[in-house]
Amino acid sequence: MDSNREIERQRMVDQYIIPSGVKDPDVIATMRRVPRHRFVPALYSIFAYIDGPLPIGYSQTISQPSLVASMTEALALKKTDKVLEIGTGSGYQAAILAELVDKVLTIEIVEPLAREAAQTLAELGYKNVRVRAGDGYKGWPEEAPFNAIIVTAAPEQVPQALLDQLAVGGRLILPVGRDIQTLDLYHRTAEGYQRKTLTFVRFVPLVHPEK
Ligand code: SAH
Q1: What contacts 211, CB < 8 A, 6 or more positions away?
Q2: DSSP character for 88?
Q3: Is position 210 within any domain?
Q4: Model confidence, pTM
Q5: What is the pLDDT of residues 32-48, one digit of tens each?
Q6: Residue 7: inside a domain, yes or no?
Q7: Active site includes 63?
Q8: Distance between CA 13 and CA 79 in Å, rounded?
Q9: Looking at ligand 1, which atom is closest to the CA of residue 206?
Q10: Which of 63, 66, 70, 90 is labelled catalytic?
Q11: How many domains does the chain have?
Q12: CA–CA distance, 126 with 7 (Å, rounded to integer)
């Protein structure tokens, strides 16, 4: 029942999220609140509060919770930020973002996943998330600039369009590479871009249909 989910979720935060090194109190509080079990297929919902990725259909996965938390923390979000996510998947990462900022836009290339994620987010009452079905490789130019962009699938190189769509002062986090991927954080300054590699990760590839 829901109270068990609540207990499991608090345990996930205490046993995995905090020990993974996440410190931002707002991110931690958000991980305590968002019901991850609602974003995974019913078959796997008993595993929702273990710190691992899970299948969501269409050969895609919902990311590992500690990685969701640390990528979110790295974006150093402010409430007034407008955030773009590429790779909606289940919608879980979008929900975490929606708790922290005023406006979230998210793009998913697998149409049924986009539809299901939009439905889950609506059921849970998130009104500040827009889900779009389509290719996110080129970002969402009509809505740019963004204060933060998070990519949850790995391109082989950083897409120039995403760098272009960052506001000055904005942050972009994404996995880059084919087999071995680095998790890179870009910061746009008045002069250009600063890049920092945070760790190694393994994400599904970012599909780039026009290549
Ligand atoms: N953030 C998700 C996990 C996403 S897995 C969550 O919280 O559940 C990565 C997702 O990126 C997959 O659903 C995949 O279909 C999507 N994807 C891959 N290439 C894409 C592209 N070019 N544009 C938009 N989405 C893409």
Answers
A1: none
A2: -
A3: no
A4: 0.97
A5: 999 999 999 999 999 99
A6: yes
A7: yes
A8: 22
A9: 19
A10: 63
A11: 1
A12: 23
